[in-house]
Automatic annotation (TrEMBL):
Protein's name according to its UniProt entry: Major facilitator superfamily (MFS) profile domain-containing protein
Domain of life: Eukaryota
GO molecular function, one term: transmembrane transporter activity
UniProt entry keywords in alphabetical sequence: Cell membrane, Glycoprotein, Membrane, Transmembrane, Transmembrane helix, Transport
Stored PROSITE patterns: MFS, SUGAR_TRANSPORT_2
Signal peptide start and end residues: none
Keyword Magnesium: no
Membrane topology, record value: Multi-pass membrane protein
Principal localisation: membrane
Chain ranges passing through the membrane: 26-46, 53-72, 78-100, 112-130, 136-154, 220-243, 258-278, 285-308, 320-344, 356-376, 388-407
Segments forming domain Major facilitator superfamily (MFS) profile: 1-411
Gene3D superfamilies: MFS general substrate transporter like domains (1.20.1250.20)
Cellular component, GO annotation: plasma membrane
Length: 452
């Protein structure tokens, strides 16, 4: 939409004048303001009335946002639409990973959670595919049909999570939910139902103070917060929001529309990779490979712009490099860092504080996104385009090192096992699993005191 809103042609630009640079920056970053606050009301709704109701409510501000922007005639209505759409974005990022984690089996939770990458990639691909060929009004009207369709379909076929139903003391409904989710008879889900009850038995109403008091939960929160900040310090939102202007600046042989569409296709195709690998390779390996690939891609993109802006060398022999670098960047981002942090947040916290942790993680993510996105044009002016991409590359390198050292592996583990691993450490858990009597006794004693 940026080329249309920068146009002097009133038949293309509904505002009737080109937007200013500050308005450009606000349009890119205001969605993140809404997303900072979105997790809190929607997490409250999900905790009070259920995950399904919470997710259905997410659709409402999305619909309002698109309809507003479809018929907006001044910049302030576009600002309102972006902020309101951000509320839905923040709510979705908080609730959807939680919902998927709570309806999945332990053995396929990673695969199920990382299918989020596929659907987020579809959402990112659609604007690149249809945006250049539609007016601002029809572009937003078409996008409004997506949350409308979701609301209708999920109302009829969506099921509440068994974890929420057990927590709400609705055991019969939890049984029905599990039978539907597992396509099994009552006898076939009893073991899993008892496991859910046992996991929730010692949980009381959760508060932020519970996370801060318990060392394993503090550790989990720090890991999740650093990972989502790493997402933004990789420059993903800035780069995707300004994809078309980046290609225009690079001066490649392909048009900016075509180049952005190619990257959009790459975003979609790459999203199908990580769900197949999540429960084979594990979360940590996906993160390490993802951050390493982004580091390389951003370094190459920075090098291209350094040659273009700061040397006399011609970039004609390497005018393919921006598309290659951005495709590598998108593939790498989708491989792990896109969704694994949200998967980990849904796995590392017990049910009574999961909503609080998800809200903190999401708000931190979008606060970081606002700062980086709003600063992107200023970074380019102050550091040069090469300097901006090299900064993002260095951040990705730091994220790689952090993942290697600090991120725990949760592949195939139950929620209870993950809590024990955070509490006692991977080495002690290995000793317990291998039958070390002393460690078993210590584990039992500590667990009993934890329950008390």
């Amino acid at each position: 939409m940026y080329p249309k809103l920068h146009s002097n042609d009133s038949s293309i630009n509904p505002i009737g004048r080109p937007i200013t640079d500050n308005e450009d920056s606000l349009l890119g970053s205001l969605v993140t303001i809404g997303a900072m606050f979105g997790p809190f009301p929607f997490s409250f709704i999900a905790g009070k009335f259920g995950r399904k109701i919470g997710l259905l409510c997410v659709a409402i501000p999305h619909i309002i946002s698109y309809i507003t922007m479809a018929f907006a005639k001044n910049i302030y209505l576009f600002f309102f639409g972006r902020v309101f759409g951000g509320l839905a974005l923040g709510g979705g990022y908080s609730l959807l990973p939680m919902y998927i984690a709570e309806i999945s089996r332990d053995s396929n939770r990673g695969t199920m959670s990382l299918t989020l990458t596929v659907f987020w990639a579809i959402g990112n691909f659609i604007p690149y595919a249809i945006g250049p060929y539609l007016s601002v009004m029809w572009f937003n009207i078409i996008l409004a049909f997506i949350p409308i369709a979701f609301f209708i379909i999920f109302t009829s076929i969506g099921t509440e999570t068994p974890y929420y139903l057990v927590e709400a003391h609705k055991t019969d409904q939890a049984e029905t939910s599990l039978m539907k989710l597992r396509n099994a008879e009552k006898d076939g889900i009893q073991k899993e139902l008892e496991s859910i009850k046992a996991h929730l038995k010692s949980d009381e109403d959760g508060h932020l103070s519970d996370i801060l008091k318990r060392s394993e939960l503090r550790k989990a929160l720090i890991i999740c917060v650093i990972l989502v900040v790493s997402q933004e310090l990789s420059g993903f939102c800035s780069i995707t929001f300004y994809m078309q202007p980046i290609f225009e600046a690079a001066g490649t042989n392909l048009s900016a529309d075509t180049s952005a569409l190619i990257v959009g296709v790459g975003m979609l195709v790459s999203s199908f990779i990580s769900p197949f690998l999540a429960d084979r390779l594990g979360r940590r390996i996906l993160l390490v490979v993802s951050c390493s690939g982004m580091c390389i891609a951003l370094f190459l993109l920075g090098t291209f712009f350094y040659i273009l802006d700061s040397t006399d060398f011609s970039t004609d022999p390497i005018n393919w490099l921006p598309i290659f670098s951005l495709l590598l960047f998108i593939f790498s981002f989708n491989f792990g860092l896109c969704t694994v942090p949200w998967t980990l947040c849904s796995e590392l916290f017990p049910n009574n504080v999961k909503g609080i942790a998800a809200s903190i993680q999401t708000s931190t993510c979008w606060l970081s996104s606002f700062i980086i996105t709003f600063s992107f044009n200023h970074m380019n002016a102050g550091m040069g385009r090469a300097g901006s991409f090299w900064f993002f590359s260095a951040s990705s390198l730091a994220s790689t090192i952090f993942c290697v050292i600090f991120v725990p592996e949760t592949k195939g583990k139950s929620f209870s096992e993950i809590q024990d691993m955070l509490r006692y450490g991977s080495r002690k858990m290995s000793l317990i699993s291998n039958g070390n009597p002393e460690m078993k006794a210590s584990n039992v004693w500590s667990t009993e005191n934890s329950v008390k």
